[in-house]
Design goal:
By secondary structure, the chain is of the alpha/beta class. It has five helices and eight strands. The chain starts with a helix and ends with a strand. The model has no long low-confidence stretch (mean pLDDT 89).
């Protein structure tokens, strides 16, 4: 009894990759030979026979076509090529991260220059920079100080970045995003 329950609850994994040989569902398939010639539309069993004679597999390349397009090739080599393409695409892709720099309306010039140096470093690496100016208590009455600070940041970074999101107020903070050129 325990053996039955164990089999009943076992997970069944779906086969990965394209369908090949007997897993192809269509009765007729468009066949491309191993050297790239189009053999035309053939019954599935005949196409599998041709592939077996060459010692290769019949792999479904385009399952949504009518009839599905299948190619005679080695399954291991095909999966290897797909993996290589995926790895090359992953290498070429550039991820852009968002770096945040927090300031206050009364930030002194030395601290401002230090934050600006970091922002320029992030922009040259290709990252976006989010500037946040926080207001506390009575600072809320002097919003123009935050606006002046944001305008100074825009002016100082205009050679390596452009404003993606203009300075806007959200709650007790002013936010602006600069992206690299």
């Amino acid at each position: 009894m325990a053996n039955i329950k164990q089999n009943y609850f076992q997970r069944r994994s779906k086969p990965q990759g394209p369908r090949a040989n007997e897993r192809i569902r269509s009765l007729d398939v468009q066949v491309i030979s191993s050297d790239g010639n189009n053999l035309g539309t053939l019954p599935l069993k005949k196409a599998i026979e041709i592939a077996k004679e060459e010692g290769l597999d019949l792999i479904e390349i385009s399952p949504n076509a009518n009839p599905p397009v299948c190619k005679i090739m080695d399954m291991g080599k095909y999966k290897y090529d797909l993996q290589k393409k995926a790895n090359n695409a992953k290498k070429k892709q550039k991820t852009v991260s968002l770096k945040e720099l927090k300031l206050r309306p009364g930030t002194e010039i030395h601290d401002y220059n230090f934050k600006l140096k970091n922002a320029k470093k992030f922009l040259t690496k290709g990252d976006k920079v989010k500037f946040t100016v926080r207001f506390k208590g009575r600072e809320m009455q002097h919003i123009e100080l935050g606006k002046n600070l944001m305008n100074r940041i825009i002016e100082d970074t205009k050679d390596i970045g452009k404003v993606e999101t203009n300075p806007k107020f959200e709650g007790k903070q002013m936010i602006m995003i600069i992206q690299p050129i």
